[in-house]
């Protein structure tokens, strides 16, 4: 039987000299699936992502892409395969939008070689997919928060990864751009892992949801299986009502 496209097995991690903040976390993804990681603030969502894109090394457990442990590969090779879009957005870059997006091609370049036609095509495609052509020559620091977020997603797309990891990508975006971005991620054909606060977006656009609570997996599965009143209460300490009358569930929350 072939290995899963992406797999995390028994992950445990914590800061040096402190107990584990994440414990016994496992997940598998098929190629092309979208996984939403949800949970309350402090549940460990961003820390888990840092393990998945090889920023933190797990104390125990393994992260494998196409059957290969990512810590057995050179960092450049991992960067060619996994792209990450983080919550933190630099604002002091003295670079244009086009130059920021071009940074996504660096893992594919060797030595002092100049960008080639494949690099230029990837940059142009990413700018177009995120509707950034009109902003391509603008200094990055002059953009709004939502525009900067779109630029960082475009940089990740220019990287041409096999796996795209995003930490709260809809932050700073208005409603229209939230929906456009999630539809874009859904339609890329890439394997996508993203943290989301908005359970409605997660239910509509994710194939599967992993719900974290206290650094552990509370439950994982299809959105309809995960987003129950009992699970939401366990993860967020709130009561919820779930409206199933439409094509996708809608949530209301109460203390």
UniProtKB/TrEMBL annotation:
One of its GO terms (molecular function) is ATP binding. Keywords: ATP-binding, Nucleotide-binding, Transport. Belongs to the ABC transporter superfamily. Pfam families: ABC_tran. InterPro entries: AAA+_ATPase (IPR003593), ABC_transporter-like_ATP-bd (IPR003439), ABC_transporter-like_CS (IPR017871), P-loop_NTPase (IPR027417). The keyword Lyase does not apply. This is ATP-binding cassette domain-containing protein. CDD domains: ABC_Iron-Siderophores_B12_Hemin. The keyword Transcription regulation does not apply. Residues 6-239 form the ABC transporter domain.
């Amino acid at each position: 039987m072939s290995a899963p496209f992406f797999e995390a097995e028994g992950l445990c991690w914590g800061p040096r000299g402190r107990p584990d903040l994440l414990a016994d976390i496992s997940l598998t993804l098929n190629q092309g699936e979208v996984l939403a990681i949800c949970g309350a603030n402090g549940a460990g969502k961003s820390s888990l992502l840092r393990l998945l894109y090889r920023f933190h090394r797990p104390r125990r457990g393994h992260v494998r892409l196409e059957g290969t442990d990512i810590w057995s590969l050179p960092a450049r090779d991992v960067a060619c395969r996994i792209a990450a879009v983080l919550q933190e957005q630099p604002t002091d870059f003295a670079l244009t939008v086009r130059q920021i997006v071009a940074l996504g091609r660096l893992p594919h370049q060797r030595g002092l070689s100049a960008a080639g036609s494949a690099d230029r095509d990837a940059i142009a495609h990413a700018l177009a997919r995120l509707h950034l052509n009109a902003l391509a020559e603008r200094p990055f620091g002059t953009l709004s928060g939502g525009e900067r977020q779109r630029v960082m997603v475009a940089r990740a797309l220019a990287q041409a990864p096999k796996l795209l990891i995003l930490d709260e990508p809809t932050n700073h975006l208005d409603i229209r751009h939230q929906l456009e971005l999630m539809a874009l991620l859904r339609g890329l054909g890439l394997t996508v892992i993203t943290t989301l606060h908005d359970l409605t977006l997660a239910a509509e656009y994710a194939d599967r949801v992993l719900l974290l609570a206290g650094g552990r997996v509370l439950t994982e599965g299809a959105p309809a299986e995960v987003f129950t009143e009992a699970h939401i209460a366990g993860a967020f300490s709130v009561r919820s009502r779930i409206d199933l009358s439409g094509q996708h569930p809608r949530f209301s929350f109460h203390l």
